[in-house]
């Protein structure tokens, strides 16, 4: 069984990674893929949507005669990331409780 990741959770993953440093598109995809299965064709629409919603900004840097587009979390993105973190903790606690993984008991 493959558990599907929601778009909101994928947004949180991207924002979480970019909260520590800026990445260009391909390297960001690789970083996400270290933890979850996601394709490049999935990542770029996510990045465009986050940028459209002012959660990310972009800038270009030259690299070997070409430009790489880097993604940077915005102040609004940091605020949204905090909300996603809080919602994830509540969701995770409920799922852990149902699956018998509640370590507080």
From TrEMBL:
Indicate the segments forming the Transcription regulator PadR N-terminal domain, all copies. Answer: 14-81
Q: Which Pfam families match?
A: PadR
Task: Write the protein's name.
Answer: PadR family transcriptional regulator
């Amino acid at each position: 069984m493959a558990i599907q990741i929601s778009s909101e959770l994928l947004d949180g993953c991207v924002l979480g990674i970019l909260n520590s440093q800026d990445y260009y598109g391909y390297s960001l995809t690789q970083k996400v893929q270290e933890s979850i299965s996601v394709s490049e064709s999935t990542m770029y629409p996510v990045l465009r949507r986050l940028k459209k919603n002012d959660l990310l900004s972009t800038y270009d840097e030259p690299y070997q005669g070409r430009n790489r587009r880097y993604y940077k979390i915005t102040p609004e993105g940091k605020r949204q990331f905090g909300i996603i973190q809080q919602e994830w903790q509540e969701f995770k606690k409920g799922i852990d409780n149902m699956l018998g993984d509640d370590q507080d008991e």
